[in-house]
Amino acid sequence: MALHFERSEFDERLARLLDRMREEKLDAMLLFAQESMYWLTGYDTFGYCFFQTLVVKADGTMTLLTRSADLRQARQTSVIDNVVVWVDRVNADPTLDLKNLLDDMDLLGARIGVEYDTHGMTGRVARLLDNQLSSFGQITDASYLVSGLRLTKSPAEIAHVRRAAELADDALDAALPLIKAGGSEADILAAMQGAVFSGGGDYPANEFIIGSGADALLCRYKAGRRTLDVNDQLTLEWAGASAHYHAAMMRTVVIGEPTPRHRELYRACAETIAAIESVLKPGHTFGDVFDTHARILDERGLTRHRLNACGYSLGARFSPSWMEHQMFHVGNPQPILPDMSLFVHMIIMDSESGTAMTLGHTYLTTEDAPQALSRHGLELIIR
Questions:
Q1: Which tens digits make up the pLDDT trace of 45-71?
Q2: % of the chain at pLDDT higher than 70
Q3: How big is the chain by its Cα radius of gyration, in Å?
Q4: Torsions phi, psi of 290, nearest 5?
Q5: What is the rounded CA–CA span in Å between residue 184 and residue 178?
Q6: Reduced to 3 states, what is the DSSP secondary structure of residue 48?
Q7: Beta-carbon neighbour count of residue 224 at 10 Å?
Q8: Residue 342's beta-bridge partner residues?
Q9: How do residues 180-236 score in pLDDT, each as one tens digit?
Q10: Residues 31-44: pLDDT tens digits?
Q11: Residue ranges of the Creatinase N-terminal domain (predicted)?
């Protein structure tokens, strides 16, 4: 079987989930998030773009309801013993199949938690689900129950996070010789992704972000490639991925002579990350990290050029995003705990001068100071 963890690891994760379900007085959970299913059972697929759900009862029994295309996928990649297939057909309503399954599992009238906040749950599916189950039992939103359990990583998970960070470093090493006047964004992107694949890594949960010139101020991937000028700027955001676990990095590279504004914004980024490292530890919250970011950049008159978040938790994620639910934004009370993998980024986009500057990498939290997982420093890269 294509399992990345020992059976005992999955048993421990299930025990943690059942404990939380007892605390929330849930008789069952309907998992729609692919990362929840993967974390709990190893089930590895992109079939969540169609209807599927993993039913977890309070007694620990699990049943996957999915399409025929994923029957063998579940058997090959997961510890799930019971797989039920709903049949593709005209006007199919798989939520009716789900209701019948729940009835067979003696869950009529039960209190059932549902993962609504996930890309595996479309608006149409939510409406169909609520229509079928509103009179079947007590349905409650439990979108963040498994997500919260996944925030702290086991030693086996941390091994994959560390490998992902090595692959992210390899990607930067592959890119640097190609970042120069006349260099092609296409070649740079191919080298970075190729380094991850060559190292045994996976596709990332979202596209690598690459943009130069005016596009260096964009925070998302877009189609189209450009050739670098003699004096230019190139923003890169990428991640290594090992068994779907991610370690992200971000840099704005200056080609040619940096402008005074480049140097000014770089200093602000570097000073802010250094300050964040002092609060990225137990005893602080995700909101404290953001407050540190906002305070320093705002003191430098950069309020309108910064973002409203400065990072997030990372882990095993599936398309369309490697970002987890918990982010560094204002007022987030989530405590920082040991063994979290957290991506801290500084993103300053000065549209008035057309200047971009970004800086960031992934940390592993400890009982005290965080550990940067990259072998690369945070110096300004000039090519």
A1: 999 999 999 999 999 999 999 999 999
A2: 100
A3: 22
A4: -65, -40
A5: 7
A6: helix
A7: 8
A8: 313, 363
A9: 999 999 999 999 999 999 999 999 999 999 999 999 999 999 999 999 999 999 999
A10: 999 999 999 999 99
A11: 13-151
Amino acid at residue number 210: I
Encode pLDDT of 70-126 as tens digits: 999 999 999 999 999 999 999 899 999 999 999 999 999 999 999 999 999 999 999
* Dihedral sign for Cα atoms in the order 80, 84, 90, 95: negative
Pairing of strands 53-57, 28-31: antiparallel
Q: Which residues contact 309 (CB under 8 A, 6 or more apart)?
A: 290, 327, 328, 329
Alpha carbon dihedral 187, 191, 193, 194, in 10-degree steps, equals 120
Residue 245 bridge partners (DSSP)? 242, 316
- Give dist(CA 383, CA 373) in Å, integer: 24
Between the CA of residue 108 and those of 132, 146, 223, what are the distances in Å?
12, 23, 49
Residue 363 near residue 341, CB atoms below 8 Å:
yes
Distance, CA of 118 to CA of 113 (rounded, Å)? 14
Residue 307: closest CA among 317, 299, 316, 297: 297
Return phi, psi of residue 123, to 5°: -60, -40
Spatial distance between the Cα atoms of 166 and 204, rounded to a whole number of angstroms = 14
**What number is the average pLDDT over the span 135-161?**
98
Give the sign of the dihedral formed by CA 253, CA 196, CA 177, CA 214.
negative
What lies within 8 Å, CB to CB, of 102 at 6+ separation is: 28, 55, 108, 110, 112, 133, 136, 137
Q: How confident is the model at residue 2 (pLDDT cuts 50, 70, 90)?
A: confident
Question: Confidence band (pLDDT; 50, 70, 90) for 1?
Answer: low
